[in-house]
Amino acid sequence: MKLIAGGQKYTNIPVSSVFIFANPHDLGTWVDSSEDASVRSLAKAYNDALVSLTEKQEKAVEQRLPTAQVITLHSANHYVFLSNETDVLRYLSAFLRRLN
Description:
Helices cover about 50% and strands about 10% of the residues.
């Protein structure tokens, strides 16, 4: 959040870095398959707000950390390393190979 607010605390990272975001988040089948319209409606509102916040975070990293690589995985959950293990390993392996 510091980067979004224009803070300088983490903007002087002189080495390559990688940021992996889940956007939009997968909220899970309990939401998607809910028969309760109010649950689906609240989940949609929450997800819309989360998408907006995550996009702001992604843009802040891209703009304020020129050495950073930003990766966005669509429909991953918060534990992106679990929900999209293959993707995360592929991106991290490629990132590490470029460091050599």
